[in-house]
Amino acid sequence: METNVGRGIVWPYRGQKMEVHSRGVLPTLPQYNMAENTLRNKSSTSQIKSLKGNVGFSCFPDQVYLKSIYDGFKFTLMVVGEAGIGKSTLINTMFENKIFPSSSEVTTTENIKGVEITSMSADIQDNNVKLHLTVVDTPGFGNYLNNDNHWQPILENIESRFDAFLAQENRVIRSKIVDNRIDALIYFIKPTGHSLRTIDIEFMKRMHAKVNLIPVISKSDTLTQEELTAFKARILADINFHSIQIFKPTIGSFDDPETTMDTKDILNKIPFAVVGSEEYVKREDGNMVRGRAYPWGIIEVDNEKHNDFTQLRKMIIHSHMEELKDYTDTVLYENHRTQKLLSMGHVQDNSVFREYNPAAQLEEERKIHEAKIQKMEAEMNAVFQQKVMEKESKLKQSEEELFSRHKEMKQTLEKQRKELTDKKKQMETSVRPSSPMDKKPKKGLFNLS
After folding, report:
1. Which of 9, 88, 104, 345 is the most buried (most CB within 10 A)?
2. Which GO terms describe its cellular component (predicted)?
């Protein structure tokens, strides 16, 4: 089993894609949930039996192919970058269709505050294969001196699309689910030639866990080849230093050597240095090519020696569009869905995915019961200790109150005793008998003796 440890998540079978009539090989569909893994492990021990005749289920891939051609496909792409950085030109060049209006056709409103979210859709067809393409633009991003929290409206838009899809999945009647989730985000890096700016780092740090992040260096023809090589190295160093997970196509175990070589070539070009142009210019040999004419020569859009546009388009459209959609559905959306449900109080019961064993079930129930009893005992002990502490506190408080009252009464009695003693002394002094000398008559004027 092949595993991919990219983005910090172990994702089995990420490299395997359902492809019919393209490489001549039809891989086994990946099993993503525990129940299917259990069934797969059970059946892996049994030997595959060969049939004596043609039963007919080998034609099932043809049915899937025809249904896919009839229904068509959907792809939602978000582009983020400053105004005038070449977003509309690159998208129109990539799909060879006027998906985005030109800058002169867009009526801008002055004094626009913050970031806006706009979307444009188009139904395009390539060799009888229909694609409903939706491009989401973010005008206003990075256009101000203070760009704090400019990523917040974009992050909220991506998460709101996840929430809308989750709400549709949880409906009782799910006749037709509309999928508007962002499958990929192209982030346009300004060709400064130095390193990532603060706004670049902060934006990618907040987005890499929500969307397939594809960084591109726009207008790379403004840099020399030496400057571009050094700029790419510094960008990758910043991305690794800040642990930013960008989308990197995987090499599947079923890929043929040519496909493996193409994927390695794409990986070596990240971040893509691109040039976009809807104009055709004439080369010296007389051939008309898409590109830009300069006094010193012509930059060809579709020439791999001039820029990385062909590798970018090959990765997004030709070889890894299904991987982008699959990773969005099975990893990014599932992570968001899990966090959302957990925040709402939902808890998954994994016991339904395990084999039933009566003895093990009884043992597990016994352990759960013992743990419950121990928890109850601990709670009772805690309550008892609390009651004892409260009772001791009340007794101590009562004792202190009694002691205080006793002391107060003792002081009162002592005061009264002292007062009585003083009064007793006063009374004894006032009623004391007179001495004989005090009874001698006083001499007067009429005393004849």
Report:
1. 88
2. cleavage apparatus septin structure; septin complex
Residue 98, φ and ψ in degrees, nearest 5: -85, 75
Residue 265 in contact with residue 225, Cβ under 8 Å?
no
Instruction: Report whether 181 contacts 130 (CB < 8 A).
Output: no
What is the C-alpha radius of gyration for the chain, rounded to an integer number of angstroms? 44
Q: 């966090």: which residue's tokens?
A: 339
C-alpha atoms less than 13 angstroms from C-alpha of 197 in its C-beta half-sphere: 15
At 17 the three-state DSSP class reads coil
Cα–Cα distances (Å) from 288 to 292, 300, 302, 309, in that order, read 11, 10, 12, 18
How far CA 244 is from CA of 6, 200, 235, 432, in Å, comes to 11, 11, 11, 112
**Tokens read off for 383:** 């309550």
Per DSSP, the residues of 151-167 read THHHHHHHHHHHHHHHH
Place of tokens 């400064």: 192
Return the closest-CA partner of residue 87 out of 154, 184, 187, 158: 187
pTM over 0.70: no
Helix/strand/coil for 43: helix
The tokens describing 203, both together, are 């934006």
Q: How far apart are the first and last CA of the chain?
A: 155
Sign of the Cα torsion 111, 117, 121, 127 reads positive
> 2 with 11: CB under 8 angstroms?
no
Task: Please check whether residue 245 is in contact with residue 209, taking contact to mean a CB–CB distance below 8 angstroms.
Answer: yes
Q: Fill in the DSSP letter of residue 20.
A: -
